[in-house]
Write a structure and sequence with these properties.
about 50% helix, about 0% strand, elongated
Amino acid sequence: MQKSLFYRRSFSPYLIPILLLMFSLVIYSYNLESQPRYPDEILYLAWGGPYFDIIKEGDFDNQCLKGLADCEFLYDTNWEGDNINYSPIRNFFVGFGLYLTTGEIKGDFYEWSCVYGRPCWDPAKAPISEEYSSGRFFSPIFGSLSIVLAFFIGKILFNRT
């Protein structure tokens, strides 16, 4: 008994995930420099640059790796005794994106870390769009990978073919 023509697999089982990855990567990374700025994104750039630079230099005893409250590269980020929004993984990937796209870690991180209506904030010293897009380097990649992961989870749970 011969199986139906539609039953036969004539393509790779990885074709759909690869196409999903490519299309979502194109959609997520389209016009990355002109996308609007998220309010906390300046802080993420200010924290990510020095964080990755310290790791790159191998200074693992630096206070900035333990917490951002007493980091000498940043304006006082200690709000009432706690480190808000401290995420070592996010800081690493934002700094790594800055390093990959520019070849070096550069920026006025001290000025960028002074926000939220403090007297030291100067909007003229805010990051430019190229610096924003450098910090956003991994965002389209992780977003696309999450779509592929959701596809595989759905395939396992609902349809094995």
